[in-house]
Please model this.
Amino acid sequence: MTIQQLEYVLAVDTYRHFAKAAEHCRVTQPTLSMMIQKLEDELGIRLFDRNVQPVKPTAAGYKVIEQARRVLYQASLIKDIINEEEQSVKGTFRLAILPTIAPYLVPRFFLKLTAKHKDLDIHILEMKTTPTLAALKNGEIDAAIIASQPVEPELQGDTLYYEQFFGYISRNETIFKNDLIRSADVNGERLWLLDEGHCFRDQLMRFCQMEEVKLRQGAYRLGSMETFMRMVESGNGITFIPELAVYQLSREQKELVRPFAIPKPTREIVLVTRKDFVRYTIAEMLVKSIKESVPKEMLALQAYQRVV
Model:
């Protein structure tokens, strides 16, 4: 049994197709198939059911694949440990960021960071919270930026900053004339809200006590914050945007922004890693770079804010 064989097994599990897995691993399909066949012969079991398309793991195969994932992750830590001993800032670092954070945060720090550390290859993936945490626990990514502290025992979080929610209000809405938004003012029937699975949606629904939106949202489901903003600008409804998004708006667009009344709903933006994470030099550099890129008042929770 070799590390390479385990990598081939995980590739087939990911792509559920031997040819695509071979392409990903940059080997020929016969080579990949032969290596997996040798492993199956050694173990005395079949890892994949090849009689169905797409191929899928057997019952025993699922268990082997989960163990293989853990083994490969632990093996990957060996190089990370050496690099950390040398305080080296190089190699690939896989960072997942929520889609409601990435468009507004990444432009603030990414180019400056990568220009300063040319040997560091940061791969950014936009993912929702649930798949992000699963990928982190499986070792598929190195770190994640999400909008809450992790509750999973194997994960740890480092607060980056606190970000308020703002209303983005069409000029045709009654509450456009108000200077502040109160949760009671928000009508779910006129609200453009992200699909289920976005913590941005869940946090706002809890704050505004809008359980009924789950029933009304079907006709308004688009899934993109930027699309919702264009709808509001065209004169239709209300949406919510994060604080960093306000800094990207034109003067005309800022006229549609309304802050919430006190307590102002706020989310905690957190860098999450596994507890066995060892690349602290890169993580500390990333945290420092992000904190320097956001307004100073966002680095601490203010008395008038409430984390939702």
